[in-house]
Specification:
Blueprint (H helix, E strand, L loop, with lengths): L11 H14 L4 H15 L2 H12 L8 H14 L3 H14 L4 H13 L3 H16 L10 H14 L5 H9 L6 H4 L4 H4 L5 H21 L6 E5 L2 H10 L10 H17 L5 E5 L2 H10 L9 H11 L4 E2 L24
Parallel strand pairs: 1-2
Antiparallel strand pairs: 2-3
Helix pairs in contact: 1-2, 2-3, 3-4, 4-5, 4-6, 6-7, 6-8, 7-8, 8-9
C-alpha cells in the first residue's frame, strides 16, 4: 500500500494478508509488520483475527521490542468487541507495571475515555504524566498525546486548569487553542443554523484533524540508508566499487544529515533513517538477482527496510541520542545548527 493511498480505497483484508506473508519471510521484523496487519484487521472489522495476531506476538519465542504496546493494543481491540473484563485486566496490568514508553499509556487511557470511563482515563493519563514528565524540562514529542489527552478529559470533567494543563498549552502548536478543541459544548454547535458558528466549528475540526495527522506515522517513511562504521568497512572491503558512494564514514554521516535537512526544507514529511547490515544487504541483493556492488540497489534496500518497519524517525529530540550511534545527544552531534 502506498503511504498516500486514501483510507477509503484500501482493501484492509488484502493489505493484512500481504503484511502477514511478509512477516513470515522476515521474522526479525515480525513485530512491526504484524502490528500493522492487526491494525488493518481492526479496520476491516475482523477484530477476533486482530486479537489472534496480538496473541501470536505475545506468545512468540522472539523477545518483543514493545511488549506493553502490543498488550495495550490488544486490550483496546478486545473492549471494542465485547471482551470488557479481559481488556480491563490488561489495562490494570499495564498501569501496575508502569512502562516508561508513553504509547501504551495513551492507548489504554484513550480506550477508557472512548467507553466513557472518564475518571479512570484521567487517573491513567495523570499517572503516566507524573511517571514520565516529572522533572523533565522539555516534554519529548512522544509524550505530547499524554498531555493533550489529559487536558481533553479534564475539560470533559469540568476540572480547573493545573500545571500539567499549562504545560500542554505550551507544547500545543496549532492555531486553535486546546481549550477550544476540547470544549465539551462544541458538539452542540454542530446543530446550529448560524453559518458563522458552523464555519468556526469547521476550522476547529480541521485543526484537530491536522493534529491527528501530525501524530500518525505513515508505514513507508522517506528513509535514508545509514551504515555503522564497522558495517561500512566490511561493505567496502567486500564491494570496493561502492567506495565512490561512500568516500569515508564521516562523509557518509554528514551526507545523511544534509540529505534529510534538504528534504525537510522542501516540505517532505515523515523522514526516517534505516540502518543497514552487510548480511541483510547481501540477502536483499540475492532476492533481487542483482550484484551487491550495484549502487542502484542501495536506495531499493533502504526502501525495503523502511517498508519492513525498520525506519527510525528523524530528527530525534535534541536531548535524545544521536542517530549516528556516537552516544552523544543529537543537539550536540549531528543536530548542531
Amino acid at each position: 500500500m502506498r503511504p498516500d493511498t486514501p483510507a477509503e480505497n484500501v482493501d484492509h483484508t488484502a493489505e493484512a494478508d500481504r503484511l502477514e506473508r511478509t512477516a513470515d519471510l522476515y521474522p526479525e521484523d515480525a513485530e512491526a509488520l504484524l502490528l500493522r496487519a492487526a491494525a488493518h484487521r481492526e479496520l476491516s472489522g475482523d477484530r477476533p483475527t486482530a486479537t489472534a495476531l496480538y496473541d501470536r506476538l505475545l506468545t512468540s519465542s522472539r523477545e518483543l521490542d514493545e511488549p506493553f504496546l502490543v498488550r495495550a493494543l490488544k486490550a483496546s481491540n478486545l473492549w471494542e468487541y465485547g471482551h470488557e473484563a479481559e481488556a480491563r485486566a490488561i489495562i490494570t496490568g499495564i498501569r501496575t507495571t508502569a512502562p516508561r514508553d508513553p504509547a501504551p499509556w495513551v492507548i489504554v487511557a484513550e480506550s477508557l475515555e472512548a467507553h466513557d470511563e472518564l475518571e479512570q482515563a484521567h487517573e491513567t493519563f495523570t499517572q503516566a504524566v507524573h511517571l514520565l514528565l516529572t522533572g523533565v524540562d522539555a516534554p519529548p514529542r512522544a509524550t505530547h498525546p499524554l498531555l493533550f489527552g489529559r487536558h481533553r478529559v479534564r475539560r470533559m470533567l469540568g476540572a480547573a486548569h493545573d500545571e500539567w494543563d499549562a504545560l500542554a498549552d505550551t507544547v500545543h502548536s496549532l492555531p486553535i487553542t486546546l481549550d477550544e478543541l476540547h470544549d465539551p459544548k462544541r458538539v452542540w454547535s454542530l446543530g446550529s443554523e448560524n453559518p458563522a458558528e458552523l464555519e468556526a466549528e469547521i476550522i476547529r475540526l480541521r485543526a484537530e484533524l491536522g493534529a491527528f495527522r501530525e501524530a500518525l506515522s505513515r508505514p513507508f517513511p522517506v528513509a535514508v540508508l545509514h551504515w555503522p562504521a564497522g558495517e561500512l568497512t566490511e561493505l567496502l572491503s567486500a564491494y570496493p566499487t561502492l567506495a565512490e558512494e561512500y568516500p569515508s564514514h564521516g562523509e557518509h554521516l554528514a551526507s545523511i544529515e544534509a540529505a534529510l535537512r534538504e528534504l525537510a526544507a522542501s516540505g517532505t514529511p515523515n523522514l526516517g533513517i534505516v540502518t543497514g547490515t552487510v548480511p541483510s544487504y547481501e540477502a536483499f541483493a540475492a532476492s533481487e538477482l542483482t550484484s551487491p556492488s550495484d549502487p542502484a540497489l542501495l536506495p531499493q534496500y533502504a526502501t525495503t527496510l523502511a517498508a519492513r518497519g525498520r525506519a527510525v524517525a528523524w530528527p530525534p529530540e535534541r536531548t535524545a541520542a544521536c542517530w549516528c550511534g556516537s552516544g552523544r545527544a543529537y543537539g550536540e552531534c549531528h543536530g548542531e545548527a
